[in-house]
């Protein structure tokens, strides 16, 4: 399910249009919903590493992009008053990734809880968990990206 209104681009189209690295890697936004985002990195030799699989940097970008897609799906209605920003990220490369890889992102806290903190004048932080899998289903990477919603009236 892609979150989209009649007068807006899909989240995937918006990210591809505004984030040059997502466009460069030809990321495919397969699902963007408030509870889950799925993004695919096609197998492209230009982005391979020394063993013929996707480069670690490409896999990191895939995972971070999936986390950004779920953040926009979950908190897109807050963009007039808050800016989503990645605070920190950690990735673990578990198995050799070869061919097409897909990242699935899930929110680590209920969106309503995060919005309630924003409503209370706080700058909420929340984790997004990402699993990266190759075509045979094996988990090749696990990532956590911690995001914040910075109130628009805060500059730092």
How would you summarize this macromolecular structure in one to three sentences?
By secondary structure, this protein is α+β, with helices and mostly antiparallel strands. Helices cover 27% and strands 35% of the residues.
Kindly provide the radius of gyration, computed on alpha-carbon positions and rounded to a whole number of angstroms: 16 Å
Helix segment tally: 4
Query: What is the percent of helical residues?
Result: 25-40%
- The CATH level-2 architecture is identified as Roll
Give the full name of the CATH homologous superfamily. Hotdog Thioesterase
Spatial order of the strands forming the largest sheet: 1-2-4-5-6-3
Sheet-strand content, in percent, reads 25-35%
What kind of sheet is the major sheet?
6 strands, antiparallel
Structure notes:
This is DUF4442 domain-containing protein. It comes from Streptomyces argyrophylli. The structure is a single chain. The longest helix has 20 residues, at 56-75. The protein has 156 residues and is of the alpha+beta class. The protein has helices at residues 11-18, 20-24, 56-75, 111-119; strands at 28-33, 36-41, 82-93, 101-107, 125-134, 139-151. It is built from four helices and six strands. It has a single domain, classed as Roll (Thiol Ester Dehydrase, Chain A), CATH 3.10.129.10. Helices cover 27% and strands 35% of the residues.
């Amino acid at each position: 399910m892609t979150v989209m209104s009649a007068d807006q681009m899909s989240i995937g189209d918006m990210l591809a249009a505004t984030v040059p690295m997502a466009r460069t890697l030809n990321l495919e936004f397969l699902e963007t919903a408030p509870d889950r985002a799925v993004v695919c990195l096609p197998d492209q030799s230009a982005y391979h590493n020394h063993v013929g699989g996707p480069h670690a940097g490409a896999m990191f970008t895939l995972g971070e992009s999936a986390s950004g897609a779920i953040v926009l799906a979950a908190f897109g209605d807050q963009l007039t008053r808050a800016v989503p920003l990645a605070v920190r990220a950690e990735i673990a490369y578990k198995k050799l990734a070869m061919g097409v890889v897909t990242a699935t992102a899930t929110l680590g806290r209920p969106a309503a809880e995060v919005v309630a903190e924003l409503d209370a004048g706080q700058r909420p932080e929340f984790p997004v968990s990402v699993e990266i899998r190759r075509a045979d289903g094996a988990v090749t990477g696990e990532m956590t990206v911690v995001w914040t919603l910075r109130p628009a009236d805060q500059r730092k």
